[in-house]
Design brief:
By secondary structure, the protein is α/β, with parallel strands linked by helices. It has a single domain, classed as NAD(P)-binding Rossmann-like Domain (Rossmann fold, 3-Layer(aba) Sandwich). It is 45% helix and 13% strand. It has an eight-stranded mixed beta sheet, sandwiched between helices. The two termini are 34 Å apart.
Protein backbone atom coordinates (compact mmCIF):
# COMPACT_ATOMS: atom_id res chain seq x y z
CA UNK A 1 0.00 0.00 0.00
CA UNK A 2 1.28 3.46 -0.81
CA UNK A 3 0.18 5.08 2.46
CA UNK A 4 -1.48 8.02 0.74
CA UNK A 5 -4.96 9.26 1.61
CA UNK A 6 -7.67 10.32 -0.84
CA UNK A 7 -10.89 12.14 0.06
CA UNK A 8 -13.83 11.68 -2.32
CA UNK A 9 -17.16 13.49 -2.10
CA UNK A 10 -20.31 11.81 -3.36
CA UNK A 11 -18.59 8.48 -2.87
CA UNK A 12 -21.52 6.10 -2.29
CA UNK A 13 -22.91 5.93 -5.85
CA UNK A 14 -21.97 6.10 -9.50
CA UNK A 15 -18.56 7.34 -10.55
CA UNK A 16 -17.78 8.46 -6.99
CA UNK A 17 -18.10 4.91 -5.73
CA UNK A 18 -16.22 3.51 -8.71
CA UNK A 19 -13.48 6.10 -8.21
CA UNK A 20 -13.18 5.00 -4.58
CA UNK A 21 -12.84 1.37 -5.69
CA UNK A 22 -10.16 2.33 -8.20
CA UNK A 23 -8.23 4.38 -5.66
CA UNK A 24 -8.39 1.50 -3.18
CA UNK A 25 -6.98 -0.85 -5.79
CA UNK A 26 -4.13 1.61 -6.23
CA UNK A 27 -3.39 1.42 -2.50
CA UNK A 28 -4.94 4.67 -1.27
CA UNK A 29 -6.53 4.99 2.14
CA UNK A 30 -9.97 6.52 1.70
CA UNK A 31 -12.05 9.27 3.26
CA UNK A 32 -15.53 8.92 1.79
CA UNK A 33 -18.24 11.56 2.14
CA UNK A 34 -21.91 10.90 1.39
CA UNK A 35 -25.31 11.80 2.75
CA UNK A 36 -26.54 8.27 3.52
CA UNK A 37 -24.81 6.53 6.41
CA UNK A 38 -26.20 3.10 5.57
CA UNK A 39 -24.93 3.32 2.00
CA UNK A 40 -21.61 4.65 3.28
CA UNK A 41 -21.15 1.59 5.48
CA UNK A 42 -22.20 -0.74 2.68
CA UNK A 43 -19.76 0.78 0.20
CA UNK A 44 -16.96 0.79 2.76
CA UNK A 45 -17.52 -2.90 3.49
CA UNK A 46 -17.62 -3.67 -0.22
CA UNK A 47 -14.31 -1.92 -0.83
CA UNK A 48 -12.67 -3.65 2.13
CA UNK A 49 -13.38 -6.99 0.45
CA UNK A 50 -11.47 -5.77 -2.59
CA UNK A 51 -8.57 -4.09 -0.77
CA UNK A 52 -8.44 -5.21 2.85
CA UNK A 53 -5.11 -3.55 3.66
CA UNK A 54 -6.31 0.05 3.34
CA UNK A 55 -8.06 2.26 5.86
CA UNK A 56 -11.53 3.58 5.03
CA UNK A 57 -13.29 6.37 6.88
CA UNK A 58 -16.85 7.47 6.10
CA UNK A 59 -18.31 10.86 7.02
CA UNK A 60 -21.99 11.67 6.61
CA UNK A 61 -22.91 15.08 5.18
CA UNK A 62 -25.44 16.61 2.80
CA UNK A 63 -23.12 18.75 0.70
CA UNK A 64 -25.88 20.90 -0.79
CA UNK A 65 -25.75 22.79 2.53
CA UNK A 66 -22.66 24.90 3.20
CA UNK A 67 -23.03 24.39 6.95
CA UNK A 68 -22.70 20.65 6.30
CA UNK A 69 -19.69 21.12 4.03
CA UNK A 70 -18.05 23.23 6.71
CA UNK A 71 -18.86 20.81 9.51
CA UNK A 72 -17.59 17.71 7.76
CA UNK A 73 -14.44 19.51 6.60
CA UNK A 74 -13.79 20.52 10.22
CA UNK A 75 -14.26 16.91 11.32
CA UNK A 76 -11.76 15.74 8.72
CA UNK A 77 -9.29 18.43 9.82
CA UNK A 78 -9.60 17.30 13.43
CA UNK A 79 -8.82 13.70 12.52
CA UNK A 80 -6.25 14.04 9.73
CA UNK A 81 -3.06 16.02 9.32
CA UNK A 82 -2.69 15.39 5.59
CA UNK A 83 -4.75 14.71 2.48
CA UNK A 84 -2.81 13.63 -0.58
CA UNK A 85 -5.67 13.76 -3.09
CA UNK A 86 -8.95 15.68 -2.84
CA UNK A 87 -11.55 14.61 -5.40
CA UNK A 88 -14.54 16.95 -5.65
CA UNK A 89 -16.97 14.55 -7.26
CA UNK A 90 -20.47 15.13 -5.88
CA UNK A 91 -22.96 16.73 -8.24
CA UNK A 92 -26.52 16.61 -9.49
CA UNK A 93 -28.95 17.89 -12.10
CA UNK A 94 -32.14 19.59 -10.96
CA UNK A 95 -34.82 19.99 -13.62
CA UNK A 96 -36.76 22.53 -11.54
CA UNK A 97 -35.55 25.46 -9.49
CA UNK A 98 -35.25 25.01 -5.76
CA UNK A 99 -33.50 27.13 -3.16
CA UNK A 100 -31.80 25.69 -0.08
CA UNK A 101 -32.54 26.85 3.45
CA UNK A 102 -29.33 28.90 3.17
CA UNK A 103 -30.71 30.85 0.20
CA UNK A 104 -28.69 29.27 -2.63
CA UNK A 105 -30.12 27.68 -5.77
CA UNK A 106 -29.44 23.95 -5.36
CA UNK A 107 -27.43 23.40 -8.54
CA UNK A 108 -25.10 26.31 -7.81
CA UNK A 109 -24.80 25.25 -4.18
CA UNK A 110 -24.03 21.56 -4.69
CA UNK A 111 -22.12 21.63 -7.96
CA UNK A 112 -19.98 24.72 -7.37
CA UNK A 113 -20.11 26.32 -3.93
CA UNK A 114 -19.63 22.94 -2.24
CA UNK A 115 -16.46 22.33 -4.29
CA UNK A 116 -15.23 25.81 -3.47
CA UNK A 117 -15.86 25.63 0.27
CA UNK A 118 -14.59 22.07 0.69
CA UNK A 119 -11.38 22.95 -1.10
CA UNK A 120 -10.87 26.15 0.90
CA UNK A 121 -11.38 24.33 4.18
CA UNK A 122 -9.04 21.44 3.32
CA UNK A 123 -6.35 23.35 1.46
CA UNK A 124 -3.87 23.30 4.34
CA UNK A 125 -4.21 19.52 4.65
CA UNK A 126 -3.54 19.11 0.94
CA UNK A 127 -0.55 21.44 1.14
CA UNK A 128 0.86 19.28 3.95
CA UNK A 129 1.27 16.45 1.42
CA UNK A 130 4.24 16.05 -0.90
CA UNK A 131 1.75 14.68 -3.47
CA UNK A 132 -0.96 17.36 -3.22
CA UNK A 133 -3.52 16.92 -5.98
CA UNK A 134 -6.99 18.45 -6.29
CA UNK A 135 -9.30 16.89 -8.86
CA UNK A 136 -12.74 18.28 -9.68
CA UNK A 137 -15.36 16.52 -11.78
CA UNK A 138 -16.77 18.93 -14.35
CA UNK A 139 -18.30 18.09 -17.74
CA UNK A 140 -18.06 18.84 -21.44
CA UNK A 141 -21.50 20.38 -20.85
CA UNK A 142 -19.58 23.52 -19.91
CA UNK A 143 -19.07 24.22 -23.62
CA UNK A 144 -21.62 26.45 -25.28
CA UNK A 145 -22.74 28.46 -22.27
CA UNK A 146 -21.82 31.65 -20.43
CA UNK A 147 -21.73 32.25 -16.71
CA UNK A 148 -24.49 34.63 -15.62
CA UNK A 149 -23.21 36.69 -12.73
CA UNK A 150 -26.55 38.48 -12.49
CA UNK A 151 -28.54 35.24 -12.22
CA UNK A 152 -26.59 33.10 -9.74
CA UNK A 153 -29.71 31.77 -8.04
CA UNK A 154 -31.80 31.42 -11.16
CA UNK A 155 -34.13 34.13 -9.94
CA UNK A 156 -34.41 35.81 -13.35
CA UNK A 157 -34.82 32.64 -15.38
CA UNK A 158 -34.27 28.97 -14.76
CA UNK A 159 -33.80 26.12 -17.17
CA UNK A 160 -32.52 22.91 -15.64
CA UNK A 161 -29.93 21.88 -18.20
CA UNK A 162 -28.66 25.42 -18.81
CA UNK A 163 -28.21 25.84 -15.08
CA UNK A 164 -26.35 22.54 -14.92
CA UNK A 165 -24.13 23.68 -17.80
CA UNK A 166 -23.28 26.88 -15.96
CA UNK A 167 -22.38 24.97 -12.81
CA UNK A 168 -20.00 22.78 -14.82
CA UNK A 169 -18.50 25.91 -16.40
CA UNK A 170 -18.03 27.21 -12.86
CA UNK A 171 -16.07 24.03 -12.03
CA UNK A 172 -13.62 24.76 -14.85
CA UNK A 173 -13.37 28.47 -14.01
CA UNK A 174 -12.76 27.56 -10.36
CA UNK A 175 -10.07 25.05 -11.29
CA UNK A 176 -8.21 27.49 -13.53
CA UNK A 177 -8.25 30.19 -10.86
CA UNK A 178 -7.39 27.75 -8.06
CA UNK A 179 -4.37 26.46 -9.98
CA UNK A 180 -3.01 30.00 -10.26
CA UNK A 181 -3.55 30.70 -6.57
CA UNK A 182 -1.87 27.52 -5.28
CA UNK A 183 0.94 27.12 -7.82
CA UNK A 184 3.51 28.25 -5.26
CA UNK A 185 2.19 25.86 -2.61
CA UNK A 186 3.14 22.64 -4.38
CA UNK A 187 -0.48 21.79 -5.23
CA UNK A 188 -1.88 20.83 -8.62
CA UNK A 189 -5.52 21.41 -9.55
CA UNK A 190 -7.22 19.89 -12.59
CA UNK A 191 -10.77 19.12 -13.70
CA UNK A 192 -12.33 16.61 -16.05
CA UNK A 193 -15.20 15.38 -18.15
CA UNK A 194 -16.13 11.85 -17.02
CA UNK A 195 -18.34 11.12 -20.02
CA UNK A 196 -22.10 10.58 -20.11
CA UNK A 197 -22.31 7.83 -17.52
CA UNK A 198 -25.03 5.25 -16.87
CA UNK A 199 -25.27 6.11 -13.19
CA UNK A 200 -28.11 7.35 -11.00
CA UNK A 201 -27.42 10.87 -12.25
CA UNK A 202 -30.72 12.73 -12.65
CA UNK A 203 -32.78 10.18 -10.75
CA UNK A 204 -33.59 12.81 -8.12
CA UNK A 205 -36.03 14.41 -10.58
CA UNK A 206 -39.63 13.54 -11.40
CA UNK A 207 -40.78 10.51 -13.39
CA UNK A 208 -40.79 12.34 -16.72
CA UNK A 209 -37.21 13.54 -16.39
CA UNK A 210 -36.04 10.18 -15.06
CA UNK A 211 -37.59 8.60 -18.14
CA UNK A 212 -35.94 11.04 -20.55
CA UNK A 213 -32.53 10.64 -18.95
CA UNK A 214 -32.97 6.87 -18.68
CA UNK A 215 -33.70 6.64 -22.40
CA UNK A 216 -30.65 8.76 -23.24
CA UNK A 217 -28.44 6.64 -20.98
CA UNK A 218 -29.66 3.44 -22.62
CA UNK A 219 -28.69 4.80 -26.03
CA UNK A 220 -25.36 6.51 -25.43
CA UNK A 221 -24.06 6.26 -21.86
CA UNK A 222 -20.83 4.58 -20.80
CA UNK A 223 -20.56 2.42 -17.69
CA UNK A 224 -19.35 3.74 -14.32
CA UNK A 225 -15.98 2.02 -14.65
CA UNK A 226 -15.20 4.05 -17.76
CA UNK A 227 -16.70 7.14 -16.14
CA UNK A 228 -14.31 6.93 -13.19
CA UNK A 229 -11.25 6.42 -15.38
CA UNK A 230 -10.45 10.13 -15.77
CA UNK A 231 -10.69 10.87 -12.05
CA UNK A 232 -8.42 7.94 -11.20
CA UNK A 233 -5.95 8.98 -13.89
CA UNK A 234 -5.67 12.53 -12.55
CA UNK A 235 -5.37 11.24 -9.00
CA UNK A 236 -2.81 8.49 -9.60
CA UNK A 237 -0.87 8.85 -12.82
CA UNK A 238 2.73 10.06 -12.81
CA UNK A 239 2.05 11.45 -16.27
CA UNK A 240 0.10 14.37 -14.77
CA UNK A 241 2.15 15.06 -11.66
CA UNK A 242 3.43 18.37 -13.03
CA UNK A 243 0.28 19.40 -14.92
CA UNK A 244 -2.06 21.93 -13.34
CA UNK A 245 -4.91 24.19 -14.32
CA UNK A 246 -6.15 21.97 -17.14
CA UNK A 247 -9.36 20.35 -18.31
CA UNK A 248 -9.17 16.64 -19.19
CA UNK A 249 -11.30 14.20 -21.16
CA UNK A 250 -10.37 10.65 -22.13
CA UNK A 251 -7.31 11.04 -19.88
CA UNK A 252 -5.93 13.76 -22.15
CA UNK A 253 -5.67 17.53 -21.85
CA UNK A 254 -8.46 19.25 -23.76
CA UNK A 255 -9.03 22.92 -24.41
CA UNK A 256 -11.66 24.29 -22.08
CA UNK A 257 -14.26 26.66 -23.49
CA UNK A 258 -13.33 30.24 -24.29
CA UNK A 259 -15.67 31.36 -21.52
CA UNK A 260 -13.63 29.35 -19.01
CA UNK A 261 -10.46 31.12 -20.11
CA UNK A 262 -11.65 34.60 -19.20
CA UNK A 263 -9.28 35.41 -16.34
CA UNK A 264 -11.28 38.42 -15.19
CA UNK A 265 -14.45 36.36 -14.94
CA UNK A 266 -12.60 33.57 -13.13
CA UNK A 267 -11.33 36.02 -10.52
CA UNK A 268 -14.81 37.50 -10.19
CA UNK A 269 -16.38 34.07 -9.65
CA UNK A 270 -13.76 33.35 -6.98
CA UNK A 271 -14.51 36.59 -5.17
CA UNK A 272 -18.28 36.05 -5.33
CA UNK A 273 -17.89 32.49 -4.10
CA UNK A 274 -15.62 33.60 -1.27
CA UNK A 275 -18.19 36.15 -0.17
CA UNK A 276 -21.02 33.58 -0.38
CA UNK A 277 -19.27 30.99 1.82
CA UNK A 278 -17.66 33.47 4.22
CA UNK A 279 -20.19 32.76 7.00
CA UNK A 280 -19.26 29.07 6.83
CA UNK A 281 -15.46 29.33 6.89
Amino acid sequence: MNGRTCLITGATDGIGKETAIGMAKNGYNLILIGRNEEKGKKVSDEIRKIADSIDIDFFKADLVLMKEVSRVADEVCQKYDRIDVLINNVGAYFAFRDVTEEGFERTFALNHLGYFLMTKKLLDLVEASDYARIVSVSSSAHYGTSFEFDNLNGEKKYRGFKTYQKSKLANVMFTYELAKRVKDRGITANCLHPGFVASKFGNNNNLLWRGILGFAKALTAINVEKGAKNSIHLACSDDVKDITGRFFANCEVKKGSAKANNEEHNRRLWEISEEAVAPFL
